[in-house]
Amino acid sequence: MRELVLYDTMTKAKRAFVPIDAKKIRMYVCGPTVYDFAHIGNARPIIVFDVLFRLLRHLYGEAHVTYVRNITDIDDKINARAAERGVSIRTLTEETAKQFHADIAALGVLPPTHEPRATDHIAEMIAMIERLIRANAAYAAEGHVLFNVEAKADYGRLARRSLDEMIAGARVDVAPFKRNPMDFVLWKPSDDKTPGWESPWGRGRPGWHIECSAMGEALLGETFDIHGGGIDLVFPHHENEIAQSECAHGGAPLANYWMHNGFLQVEGQKMSKSLGNFVTIHDALKDWPGEVLRFNMLRSHYRQPIDWTERGLKESETILGRLEDRASGAEKASVAAPVLDALLDDMNTPQAIAELHQEKDEGALAASLAFLGFASDKTKNDKRLPAGTDEAAIEAMVAARFAARKAKDFKEADRLRAELEAMGVILKDGPEGTTWELKR
RNA sequence: GGCCACGUGGCGGAGUGGUUACGCAACGGUCUGCAAAACCGUGUACCCCGGUUCAAUUCCGGGCGUGGCCUCCA
User: Fold this and answer.
1) What is the mean pLDDT of residues A393-421?
2) Would you place residue A380 in the very low, low, confident or very high pLDDT band (cuts 50, 70, 90)?
3) How far is the CA of A161 from the C1' of B62 (A)?
4) Nucleotides on strand B with an atom closer than 7 A to protein CB?
5) CA–C1' nearest nucleotide, residue A231
6) What is the C-alpha to C-alpha distance for residues A164 and A184, in angstroms, rounded to an integer?
7) Residue A167: in which H helix or E strand, if any?
8) What pTM, to 2 d.p., does this model score?
9) 3-class DSSP state for residue A365?
10) Which of A207, A252, A317, A382 has the smallest CB count inside 10 Å?
11) From CA A55, how far away is CA A62, in angstroms rounded?
């Protein structure tokens, strides 16, 4: 078997994956901020890193891979939404997290090993901030605590930007208490109406980046193998995570491999609420089986941009349906070697899918589909029947037509077929009888 | 303005310094009471302009286009 090769954003190159400890593979992926329905763009890293999680478990054994994906449940967008709705942030985040879990489960995503919530780790964040102050990498000013980017000689390395460039490019007014314009907030004060926690710097709340540093350290240690997320997180979030963690850890690297998935557009345009093309996972699941959404996502390489289109989804449904048809009923064998090889090459899922088409052995095909997270043949007839019909009624009509056809009453048979077609049901006559499925 | 990605046949989408990607759709055929499905067959692409090379879609430079990011807050 070939070795696993991953593209590392830090070095901008594919590198052989060498684990720190093959018995303890550790991966951290930035999870959602839970204040509203997750959209289809949020689903991309969830699905992409789910494939990586499955691959790592396959290579190193299920017991030897730890996958942490956090839930951000303290954030100013959360505060604003909770205040708007007049509920506590806990109520809002619990509700949203629950919805998130339901959505991604439908996408065939395995639960991560740990799913820490920021508010459960405030103490660790405060402790880390204190360490940063002691290490002269952070300072308190006017109720805030700021990270001093000058404490990190290679700040900007991940994003490949120098401090000078960033300062020159800054478009926003700089808070007067900052020592360097690029200094970022570790802790900020909360007024009486804003959620807050007691700290050495008064009642306040954490900045955005510190939670991932604190939770990563708590669950995975100072240095772990893989850190992942969307490419939009490279700067500032991951850059700042690195700065915080490495300064708190005496320079030990935060992660050995940095992986970022590409962005997603909808029908050729950027997804935004104002354009009205904002697709939530929840809404997409009303129109398509979760497996089709997953397949559509994996038809593009994770680092490539992806254009999310109706046409593409239809095509995905057709392709996946055919693959699952071929695999259905087969005893699962082992994952096809070419499929695995494609995944080992920086998770080349389009190549893996191409290999699926070439796979002649149905057992290997079934196993490969399952390995990629397509666990069933539920894609078709996903119980999304037209309003006012039910499965029993359709079955009865199908049977009636079959009888008519057998009696060579083709006129009646065609009439029934036309009627079924009007309901969106397509018939398939085979030697064993007639099967049906829903057309789209 | 700065930094960074991407641009492949009707569509989706890998990959490669010189050989068929693959799939969807389309078209032709087999099969079928008629269909659908399935199966067989057909198609020859790499944004533009230079450069390097015996040879570039594939390496280098420039251009154009699309997208992402550019401290807290937005």
Assistant:
1) 85
2) very low
3) 24
4) 1-6, 11-15, 21-25, 32-39, 66-74
5) B68
6) 16
7) helix A163-169
8) 0.91
9) helix
10) A252
11) 10
